[in-house]
Structure formats: structure tokens, C-alpha cells
């Protein structure tokens, strides 16, 4: 996805915005009526969103309340740096809409199909979260349908207990129908630096050090093994050296991001545990200039590295660049999620995020290495 930051971003007409809001209110009234009916009958139901980014096996059979129509960006306001977003708006559509106004959400989930409502209900932390918090921390207010069918608004000032509790409650306190999101100024590129580390302790210490650096807009890391880690820092910028090639990851012949990081740092010396290392170590750290949207969705192709498992499912297909290109349509996260559930493999795989304090992170990685030997691992400071 290319970044577009027009100098005179288009302004939607008041009539268009009003029509969109009227459609929204009509849809919410219909959903609220359905919820109220289930409540009065004391009948259990589930919510149909139209898509899923869950790795758990899906249950069927219960009646549903269909909210799949709530999939629109209703407004982007450059003056207030906010966006009105329905819950089923995926991240790629949200980013595309806000970039037209030269703006970007402070926290963007790394898969383009993850929705705004999913990020609010599911506690999403990304490489900018050390600076801005979870995705739900960038929400100003939420419109919700409660269990009895009432439509309410919750914010830090209004129904603050509901607003605080609904974030990360996976929809158990109500159905989210609209969010007002904070936005910030976008830039053309993310100047991305790959800091090689040679131990788990060094990687954890380096991440902690980089989060204290105010120049960094993004920080995360990948552990390929106990002695090959990479802490990745990113800085938003409009400038790029004229002789530097732009690095992309969305094209079918582009490298998968994690493989690119591994290759770029394979023969690079350790950069040390802190950001205040020597000039020689710092100068040896590889640097890429990545278009902003390409950076935000860098893990899409291959689904971090879970897509490599597809090559064990299809026996006899080698994990080579040619076959990653040849099978590219099937190796983006939207298709990987469909395949995960359609094949029944979701019952066999466990994909788990864990929040750990810095003081126990090294011991936990040592434990998983000894007992499971699962690599790579993603490190994301929150």
C-alpha cells in the first residue's frame, strides 16, 4: 500500500457525512432491537462480524446477531485529528482513509484484516505501544449496545467504568458499534534500524533502552534463536537519502519481513545491550527506508512466520522464494486465517501472546527454549 499525503486532502461534504451517520443509526437501531429480543427471551446468541482474526476453533450453532454491515469509516477530521470508525473497519481500510488526510492512528495492528472493534475488544499491542499504549488507549469514546439492548456512549468521562472494562473484554460487556479514534501526523517513511543482539538478556536490555529514546516511534524485536536476536527501531520521516532504495514487503516477489530481517543481520556484530553503544557498532546496524503503510503491515505476508507451517501441510512443497512467490495469494493473513479454520488446523496449533515484566522475560524465554524450542519469538514492549 503506497502512502499518499495530499497537500489539500479532500473534505467530505456535510450531506455525505450526514447520510453516512443516518445509515449508521438505522443499522444500530436494528441490531439493538435484535439484542433486546434475545435478552427478553433469555436466549443465548453470538455476534457475527463478517470476518475473524481469531486462531481459536470457531463454534457454530447458536443464533447470531449480524453486525457485519458496520464496516465504514464515517468521518476523518483533520482539525481535531480524529476518525469516526465502525467496528468492522479493517486496518488497511482505516489506514487508507486516514492517509488521504495526512494522518495515521498512533497504534495500528500489524495485520490488515484486524478490525478497529477487534482491537478495542481484544487488547492489541504493537510496536508503537511503548509510546501510545494499547489500541484501546487511542480510543476517545465508544458507542455500545448493552446486553438489554440499550444504546449508550462510554468514555473516560461518561460511564468510565464501562469504558475501562469493555477494553479487552472481548465483547462480554456489550456490542461495540462506533469508535472515535485519535490520529497523528503521518510521514512518508519509517527509517528502520536493525540492532543485532547475541543473547536473550541483551535483546531484552536493548529493547528497554530503546523505549527510553524519544526519537523512536516504533520498537519491537525478533528472537531467531538464543544467540541471534534483532531489536528493530523505527522513526517516522519524510526524508530519504537519494541513493537509498525503498524497501517494500507487500509485493509477491518481495521478501517476507522476518526473513529479510534475519538475512540483513546474519553476519552483523552485536550492537550491544543499550542505545549508547560505540559509533562503530551503531554504524554497522543495517537501515531500511520503508513506506509507512508497508511498515505497518510488514508482517502480513507469512503471518509473522506462521505461514511457514503451510509448507509442512502441503507435503513436498519446498520453502523457497520461488514457491513463496508462486503461492503468494494463499500466504497473506486473511487467507491464512481462512485456511486455519477451514482445514481444522486451528485445533492443532496454539498461537499465544503473553505479557511479561522485564525482570522475568529472559527466564521465560529460556524455559520455552528448553521445553519447546519454538523459534522465532516476537518481542513487543508495551
Q: What labels would you give this structure?
A:
single chain; alpha+beta; Uridine Diphospho-n-acetylenolpyruvylglucosamine Reductase, domain 3; 2 domains; 5-stranded antiparallel β-sheet; 14 strands; disordered N terminus; Diminuto-like; membrane; EC 1.3.1.72; Delta(24)-sterol reductase; FAD-bd_PCMH
Shape, per Cα inertia axes: globular
Number of strands: 14
| Share of helix, binned | 25-40%
Poorly predicted runs: 2-7
CATH class value of the largest domain: Alpha Beta
Overall mean pLDDT score?
Answer: 90
How are the strands of the largest sheet arranged?
3-4-8-6-7
Euclidean distance between termini CA atoms: 26 Å
Give the radius of gyration.
22 Å
> Total helix count?
13
Class based on secondary structure composition and strand pairing:
alpha+beta
State the order of secondary-structure elements, H for helix, E for strand.
HEEEEHEHHEEHEEEHEEHHEHHHHHE
Q: At CATH's second level, what is the architecture of the largest domain?
A: 2-Layer Sandwich
Protein name: Delta(24)-sterol reductase
EC number: 1.3.1.72
GO molecular function: Delta24(24-1) sterol reductase activity; Delta24-sterol reductase activity; FAD binding
GO biological process, one term: steroid metabolic process
Amino acid at each position: 500500500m503506497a502512502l499518499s499525503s495530499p497537500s489539500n486532502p479532500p473534505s467530505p461534504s456535510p450531506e455525505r457525512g450526514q447520510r453516512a451517520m443516518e445509515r449508521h443509526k438505522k443499522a444500530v437501531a436494528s441490531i439493538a432491537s435484535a439484542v433486546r429480543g434475545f435478552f427478553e427471551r433469555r436466549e443465548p446468541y453470538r455476534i457475527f462480524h463478517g470476518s475473524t482474526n481469531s486462531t481459536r476453533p470457531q463454534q457454530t450453532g447458536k443464533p447470531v446477531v449480524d453486525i457485519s454491515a458496520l464496516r465504514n469509516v464515517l468521518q476523518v477530521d483533520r482539525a481535531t485529528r480524529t476518525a469516526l470508525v465502525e467496528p468492522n473497519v479493517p486496518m488497511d481500510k482505516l489506514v487508507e482513509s486516514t492517509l488521504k488526510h495526512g494522518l495515521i492512528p498512533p497504534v495500528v495492528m500489524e495485520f490488515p484484516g484486524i478490525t478497529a472493534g477487534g482491537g478495542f475488544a481484544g487488547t492489541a499491542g504493537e510496536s508503537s505501544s511503548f509510546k501510545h499504549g494499547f489500541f484501546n488507549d487511542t480510543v476517545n469514546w465508544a458507542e455500545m449496545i448493552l446486553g438489554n439492548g440499550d444504546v449508550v456512549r462510554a468514555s473516560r468521562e461518561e460511564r468510565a467504568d464501562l469504558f475501562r472494562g469493555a477494553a479487552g473484554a472481548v465483547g462480554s460487556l456489550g456490542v461495540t458499534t462506533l469508535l472515535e479514534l485519535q490520529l497523528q501526523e503521518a510521514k512518508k517513511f519509517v527509517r528502520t534500524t536493525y540492532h543485532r543482539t547475541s543473547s536473550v538478556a541483551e535483546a531484552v536490555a536493548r529493547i528497554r533502552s530503546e523505549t527510553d529514546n524519544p526519537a523512536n516511534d516504533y520498537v519491537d524485536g525478533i528472537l531467531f534463536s538464543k544467540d541471534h536476536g534483532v531489536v528493530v527501531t523505527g522513526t517516522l520521516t519524510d526524508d530519504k537519502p537519494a541513493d537509498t532504495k525503498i524497501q517494500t514487503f507487500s509485493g509477491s516477489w518481495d521478501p517476507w519481513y522476518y526473513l529479510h530481517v534475519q538475512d540483513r543481520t546474519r553476519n552483523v556484530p552485536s550492537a550491544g545491550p543499550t542505545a549508547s553503544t560505540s559509533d562503530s557498532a551503531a554504524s554497522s546496524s543495517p537501515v531500511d527506508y520503508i513506506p509507512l503503510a508497508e511498515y505497518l503491515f510488514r508482517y502480513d505476508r507469512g503471518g509473522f512466520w506462521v505461514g511457514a507451517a503451510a509448507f509442512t501441510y502441503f507435503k513436498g512443497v519446498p520453502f523457497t522464494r520461488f514457491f513463496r512467490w508462486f503461492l503468494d495469494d494463499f500466504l497473506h493473513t486473511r487467507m491464512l486465517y481462512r485456511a486455519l479454520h477451514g482445514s481444522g488446523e486451528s485445533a492443532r496449533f496454539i498461537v499465544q501472546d503473553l505479557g511479561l515484566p522485564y525482570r522475568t522475560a529472559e527466564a521465560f524465554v529460556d524455559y520455552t527454549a528448553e521445553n519447546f524450542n519454538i523459534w522465532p519469538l516476537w518481542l513487543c514492549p508495551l
